Amino acid sequence: MVGEAIMIASMPIKLMIRAAGYCTHPEWLTLRGGALRSVPFPAGFACILHPEHGPVLFDTGYSQRFFEETARLPNALYRYITPVIYQDEDSAASQLRAVGIAPEDVKYIVLSHFHGDHIGGIRDFHNARFIYLDKAYCAVKHLGPLASVRAGFLPGLLPEDFAERSLPIRTKDIVQPFPTVNESVFPCTEGYDLFGDGSLLAIELSGHAAGMIGLFVSTATDDYLLCADAVWSSRAYREDRLPHPAAGLIMSDRQQYKQSYDLLRQLHRAVPTLRIAPSHCREALAAWGKGVLE
Predict the structure, then answer these.
(1) Could you say which of 36, 72, 178, 269 is the most buried, measured as most Cβ atoms within 10 Å of its Cβ?
(2) Do residues 186 and 9 touch, judged by C-beta distance below 8 A?
(3) C-beta of residue 61 within 8 angstroms of C-beta of residue 19
(4) Closest Cα partner for 23 from 56, 65, 72, 66?
Protein backbone atom coordinates (compact mmCIF):
# COMPACT_ATOMS: atom_id res chain seq x y z
CA MET A 1 0.00 0.00 0.00
CA VAL A 2 2.91 2.37 0.60
CA GLY A 3 3.45 4.58 -2.43
CA GLU A 4 -0.13 4.23 -3.71
CA ALA A 5 -3.12 6.50 -3.26
CA ILE A 6 -5.32 4.81 -0.68
CA MET A 7 -8.49 6.95 -0.82
CA ILE A 8 -8.66 7.75 2.87
CA ALA A 9 -12.09 9.38 2.64
CA SER A 10 -14.86 7.11 1.39
CA MET A 11 -16.67 9.75 -0.69
CA PRO A 12 -14.60 11.66 -3.27
CA ILE A 13 -15.03 15.43 -3.49
CA LYS A 14 -13.68 18.22 -5.65
CA LEU A 15 -11.25 20.64 -4.05
CA MET A 16 -9.93 24.16 -4.51
CA ILE A 17 -6.97 25.37 -2.46
CA ARG A 18 -6.47 29.14 -2.41
CA ALA A 19 -5.11 31.98 -0.26
CA ALA A 20 -6.85 35.14 0.93
CA GLY A 21 -3.94 37.54 1.41
CA TYR A 22 -0.66 36.84 3.14
CA CYS A 23 1.50 38.01 6.01
CA THR A 24 5.27 38.31 6.27
CA HIS A 25 7.48 36.90 8.97
CA PRO A 26 11.15 35.92 9.37
CA GLU A 27 11.58 32.41 7.97
CA TRP A 28 14.06 31.30 10.65
CA LEU A 29 11.35 31.49 13.30
CA THR A 30 9.11 28.99 11.49
CA LEU A 31 11.81 26.68 10.11
CA ARG A 32 14.98 25.79 11.98
CA GLY A 33 17.91 27.07 9.91
CA GLY A 34 15.65 29.20 7.70
CA ALA A 35 16.55 32.57 6.22
CA LEU A 36 16.87 35.64 8.41
CA ARG A 37 14.78 37.70 6.00
CA SER A 38 11.00 37.99 6.16
CA VAL A 39 9.14 35.83 3.66
CA PRO A 40 5.44 35.69 2.66
CA PHE A 41 3.10 33.22 4.33
CA PRO A 42 -0.17 32.86 2.38
CA ALA A 43 -3.38 32.77 4.42
CA GLY A 44 -4.69 29.56 2.95
CA PHE A 45 -8.25 28.34 2.74
CA ALA A 46 -9.88 25.50 0.87
CA CYS A 47 -13.23 25.12 -0.85
CA ILE A 48 -14.55 21.57 -0.85
CA LEU A 49 -17.22 20.91 -3.47
CA HIS A 50 -19.34 18.31 -1.74
CA PRO A 51 -21.83 16.30 -3.86
CA GLU A 52 -24.60 16.71 -1.25
CA HIS A 53 -23.75 19.80 0.82
CA GLY A 54 -22.37 22.02 -1.94
CA PRO A 55 -19.37 24.28 -1.28
CA VAL A 56 -17.82 23.76 2.17
CA LEU A 57 -14.96 25.98 3.34
CA PHE A 58 -11.97 25.01 5.43
CA ASP A 59 -10.99 28.34 7.03
CA THR A 60 -11.29 31.67 5.21
CA GLY A 61 -8.00 33.59 5.32
CA TYR A 62 -8.05 37.37 5.75
CA SER A 63 -10.70 39.94 4.86
CA GLN A 64 -10.95 43.73 5.07
CA ARG A 65 -12.46 43.33 8.52
CA PHE A 66 -9.06 42.17 9.82
CA PHE A 67 -7.75 45.70 9.25
CA GLU A 68 -10.77 47.24 10.92
CA GLU A 69 -10.28 45.02 13.96
CA THR A 70 -6.55 45.81 14.20
CA ALA A 71 -6.84 49.58 13.73
CA ARG A 72 -6.34 50.32 17.43
CA LEU A 73 -4.36 48.95 20.35
CA PRO A 74 -4.11 46.35 21.70
CA ASN A 75 -5.32 44.53 18.54
CA ALA A 76 -2.95 46.62 16.40
CA LEU A 77 -0.07 44.63 17.91
CA TYR A 78 -1.24 41.65 15.86
CA ARG A 79 -0.80 43.57 12.59
CA TYR A 80 2.56 45.05 13.65
CA ILE A 81 4.02 41.66 14.54
CA THR A 82 2.81 39.99 11.33
CA PRO A 83 2.33 42.64 8.62
CA VAL A 84 -0.48 41.69 6.25
CA ILE A 85 -0.71 42.27 2.49
CA TYR A 86 -4.25 42.04 1.19
CA GLN A 87 -6.61 43.46 -1.46
CA ASP A 88 -10.38 43.16 -1.54
CA GLU A 89 -10.30 40.77 -4.49
CA ASP A 90 -8.19 38.40 -2.36
CA SER A 91 -11.05 37.59 0.01
CA ALA A 92 -12.45 34.07 0.00
CA ALA A 93 -15.87 35.46 -0.90
CA SER A 94 -14.48 37.38 -3.91
CA GLN A 95 -12.51 34.39 -5.16
CA LEU A 96 -15.54 32.12 -4.91
CA ARG A 97 -17.70 34.62 -6.80
CA ALA A 98 -15.05 34.66 -9.55
CA VAL A 99 -15.57 30.92 -10.13
CA GLY A 100 -19.37 31.11 -9.93
CA ILE A 101 -19.93 30.24 -6.26
CA ALA A 102 -22.12 32.69 -4.35
CA PRO A 103 -21.10 33.24 -0.70
CA GLU A 104 -24.70 32.63 0.37
CA ASP A 105 -24.46 29.12 -1.08
CA VAL A 106 -21.81 28.16 1.48
CA LYS A 107 -23.70 26.30 4.21
CA TYR A 108 -20.72 25.07 6.28
CA ILE A 109 -17.32 26.44 7.26
CA VAL A 110 -14.89 24.13 9.06
CA LEU A 111 -12.65 26.22 11.31
CA SER A 112 -9.27 24.65 11.99
CA HIS A 113 -8.68 27.07 14.90
CA PHE A 114 -9.47 30.64 15.88
CA HIS A 115 -6.43 32.67 14.80
CA GLY A 116 -7.31 35.82 12.89
CA ASP A 117 -5.78 34.66 9.61
CA HIS A 118 -8.11 31.64 9.60
CA ILE A 119 -11.41 33.22 10.68
CA GLY A 120 -10.94 36.63 9.05
CA GLY A 121 -13.59 36.16 6.37
CA ILE A 122 -16.37 34.24 8.07
CA ARG A 123 -18.70 37.27 8.30
CA ASP A 124 -18.92 37.22 4.49
CA PHE A 125 -20.84 33.94 4.60
CA HIS A 126 -24.20 34.80 6.13
CA ASN A 127 -25.81 31.37 5.68
CA ALA A 128 -22.90 29.28 6.90
CA ARG A 129 -22.80 27.19 10.03
CA PHE A 130 -19.47 26.71 11.79
CA ILE A 131 -17.86 23.37 12.58
CA TYR A 132 -14.91 23.33 14.97
CA LEU A 133 -13.53 21.40 17.91
CA ASP A 134 -15.36 22.69 20.96
CA LYS A 135 -12.23 23.05 23.06
CA ALA A 136 -10.67 25.31 20.41
CA TYR A 137 -13.29 27.99 21.03
CA CYS A 138 -13.42 27.34 24.78
CA ALA A 139 -9.69 28.13 24.91
CA VAL A 140 -10.18 31.69 23.60
CA LYS A 141 -13.75 32.89 24.12
CA HIS A 142 -13.25 34.21 27.66
CA LEU A 143 -9.84 35.84 27.14
CA GLY A 144 -9.34 39.53 27.86
CA PRO A 145 -8.08 41.97 25.19
CA LEU A 146 -4.32 41.47 25.69
CA ALA A 147 -4.60 37.73 26.20
CA SER A 148 -6.70 37.47 23.03
CA VAL A 149 -4.03 39.22 20.98
CA ARG A 150 -1.35 36.96 22.43
CA ALA A 151 -3.52 33.98 21.42
CA GLY A 152 -3.98 35.36 17.89
CA PHE A 153 -7.72 35.74 18.43
CA LEU A 154 -9.75 38.78 17.38
CA PRO A 155 -13.28 38.33 18.76
CA GLY A 156 -14.73 41.01 16.48
CA LEU A 157 -14.09 38.79 13.45
CA LEU A 158 -16.86 36.48 14.62
CA PRO A 159 -20.48 37.31 13.71
CA GLU A 160 -22.81 38.27 16.55
CA ASP A 161 -24.80 35.05 16.08
CA PHE A 162 -21.72 32.84 16.05
CA ALA A 163 -22.93 30.64 18.91
CA GLU A 164 -26.34 30.09 17.32
CA ARG A 165 -24.76 29.07 14.03
CA SER A 166 -22.14 26.80 15.57
CA LEU A 167 -21.97 23.01 15.33
CA PRO A 168 -19.11 22.28 17.74
CA ILE A 169 -17.41 18.89 17.76
CA ARG A 170 -17.04 17.40 21.21
CA THR A 171 -14.78 14.59 22.38
CA LYS A 172 -17.75 12.24 22.67
CA ASP A 173 -18.29 12.59 18.91
CA ILE A 174 -15.08 10.73 18.17
CA VAL A 175 -15.41 7.79 15.78
CA GLN A 176 -13.13 5.34 14.02
CA PRO A 177 -13.15 6.98 10.55
CA PHE A 178 -10.48 4.94 8.75
CA PRO A 179 -12.02 1.45 8.38
CA THR A 180 -10.64 0.82 4.89
CA VAL A 181 -7.04 1.76 5.75
CA ASN A 182 -4.50 -0.77 6.90
CA GLU A 183 -3.80 0.31 10.48
CA SER A 184 -0.31 -1.18 10.35
CA VAL A 185 0.53 1.41 7.70
CA PHE A 186 -1.72 4.37 8.44
CA PRO A 187 -0.84 6.19 11.69
CA CYS A 188 -4.31 7.66 12.38
CA THR A 189 -6.89 5.39 13.97
CA GLU A 190 -9.60 7.78 15.12
CA GLY A 191 -11.08 11.14 14.34
CA TYR A 192 -14.34 12.90 13.48
CA ASP A 193 -16.58 12.05 10.52
CA LEU A 194 -18.07 15.52 10.08
CA PHE A 195 -21.03 14.67 7.84
CA GLY A 196 -21.40 10.98 8.70
CA ASP A 197 -20.66 9.97 5.11
CA GLY A 198 -16.88 9.53 5.25
CA SER A 199 -16.23 12.57 3.05
CA LEU A 200 -14.63 14.93 5.59
CA LEU A 201 -12.53 13.28 8.29
CA ALA A 202 -11.13 15.62 10.93
CA ILE A 203 -8.27 14.85 13.31
CA GLU A 204 -6.98 16.85 16.23
CA LEU A 205 -3.62 18.57 15.66
CA SER A 206 -3.34 20.64 18.84
CA GLY A 207 -0.17 22.44 19.84
CA HIS A 208 0.02 25.46 17.57
CA ALA A 209 -3.42 26.30 18.97
CA ALA A 210 -5.57 24.40 21.43
CA GLY A 211 -8.06 22.14 19.70
CA MET A 212 -6.74 22.77 16.19
CA ILE A 213 -7.98 20.27 13.61
CA GLY A 214 -6.81 19.08 10.23
CA LEU A 215 -9.04 17.59 7.55
CA PHE A 216 -8.60 14.49 5.39
CA VAL A 217 -10.40 14.64 2.05
CA SER A 218 -10.03 12.59 -1.11
CA THR A 219 -10.61 13.61 -4.70
CA ALA A 220 -11.13 11.00 -7.41
CA THR A 221 -7.36 10.63 -7.74
CA ASP A 222 -5.58 11.90 -4.62
CA ASP A 223 -5.70 12.03 -0.83
CA TYR A 224 -5.19 15.33 1.00
CA LEU A 225 -4.58 16.37 4.56
CA LEU A 226 -5.38 20.04 5.08
CA CYS A 227 -3.16 20.32 8.16
CA ALA A 228 -3.71 24.01 9.03
CA ASP A 229 -0.71 25.27 11.06
CA ALA A 230 0.65 21.94 12.28
CA VAL A 231 3.67 23.10 10.26
CA TRP A 232 4.22 26.36 8.41
CA SER A 233 5.79 24.75 5.35
CA SER A 234 6.11 21.40 3.60
CA ARG A 235 9.87 21.52 4.06
CA ALA A 236 9.38 21.18 7.81
CA TYR A 237 7.93 17.66 7.78
CA ARG A 238 9.93 16.51 4.73
CA GLU A 239 13.30 17.66 6.06
CA ASP A 240 12.52 17.18 9.77
CA ARG A 241 13.03 20.85 10.62
CA LEU A 242 11.08 21.99 13.63
CA PRO A 243 10.50 25.72 14.14
CA HIS A 244 12.95 27.74 16.21
CA PRO A 245 12.40 27.32 19.97
CA ALA A 246 11.30 30.97 20.12
CA ALA A 247 8.20 30.00 18.12
CA GLY A 248 7.04 28.19 21.25
CA LEU A 249 6.07 31.56 22.67
CA ILE A 250 3.05 31.66 20.35
CA MET A 251 2.10 27.99 20.75
CA SER A 252 -0.66 26.79 23.05
CA ASP A 253 1.40 23.71 24.04
CA ARG A 254 4.92 22.86 22.85
CA GLN A 255 4.59 19.17 23.71
CA GLN A 256 1.34 18.81 21.80
CA TYR A 257 2.89 20.69 18.88
CA LYS A 258 5.70 18.12 18.75
CA GLN A 259 3.18 15.27 18.84
CA SER A 260 1.23 16.76 15.92
CA TYR A 261 4.49 17.40 14.04
CA ASP A 262 5.59 13.80 14.59
CA LEU A 263 2.22 12.57 13.28
CA LEU A 264 2.75 14.50 10.03
CA ARG A 265 6.20 12.95 9.71
CA GLN A 266 4.70 9.47 10.24
CA LEU A 267 1.96 10.11 7.69
CA HIS A 268 4.49 11.32 5.12
CA ARG A 269 6.62 8.20 5.57
CA ALA A 270 3.70 5.76 5.65
CA VAL A 271 1.76 7.27 2.72
CA PRO A 272 4.14 9.21 0.47
CA THR A 273 1.30 9.96 -1.97
CA LEU A 274 -0.68 11.84 0.68
CA ARG A 275 -0.75 15.52 -0.23
CA ILE A 276 -0.15 17.31 3.07
CA ALA A 277 -1.19 20.95 2.64
CA PRO A 278 -0.15 23.41 5.38
CA SER A 279 -2.24 26.58 5.35
CA HIS A 280 0.74 28.91 4.98
CA CYS A 281 2.93 26.92 2.58
CA ARG A 282 3.79 28.67 -0.70
CA GLU A 283 5.00 25.39 -2.19
CA ALA A 284 1.72 23.57 -1.53
CA LEU A 285 -0.27 26.51 -2.86
CA ALA A 286 1.80 26.64 -6.04
CA ALA A 287 1.46 22.89 -6.59
CA TRP A 288 -2.24 22.41 -5.80
CA GLY A 289 -3.75 25.90 -5.77
CA LYS A 290 -4.79 26.20 -9.41
CA GLY A 291 -8.39 25.62 -10.36
CA VAL A 292 -10.47 22.69 -9.15
CA LEU A 293 -8.69 19.49 -8.19
CA GLU A 294 -10.69 16.51 -9.49
Answers:
(1) 178
(2) no
(3) yes
(4) 66
Return the SS3 of 138: helix
Which among 29, 21, 149, 37 has a CA at the least distance from the CA of 84? 21
The answer to whether the CB of 238 falls within 8 A of the CB of 267 is no
Q: Which residue blocks in the chain are alpha helix, DSSP H?
A: 27-30, 64-69, 76-81, 92-98, 116-119, 134-138, 145-150, 234-239, 254-270, 282-288
Buried b (16+ CB within 10 A) or exposed e, 255-274: ebbeebbebbbebbebbeeb
Inter-residue contact 198 to 28 (CB < 8 Å): no
β partners of residue 261:
none
Q: What is the mean pLDDT of residues 236-255?
A: 92
Helix and strand totals (H; E) in the chain = 10, 12
- The per-residue pLDDT for range 165-189, each reduced to its tens digit, is 999 998 778 886 665 555 556 788 8
**R_g over Cα of the chain:** 18
What is the CA 56 to chain-centroid distance, rounded?
A: 13
Helices (H), 145-246: 145-150, 234-239
Whole-prediction pTM value?
0.94
- Count Cβ neighbours within 10 Å for each residue of 81-103 and write b for 16 or more, e otherwise: ebebebeeebbbbbbbeeeebeb
Which has more pLDDT, 47 or 6? 47
Q: What is the pLDDT of residues 265-291, one digit of tens each?
A: 999 998 899 999 999 999 999 999 876
Helical spans, DSSP H, in 82-178: 92-98, 116-119, 134-138, 145-150
Judge whether 209 and 229 are in contact, CB under 8 Å.
Answer: yes
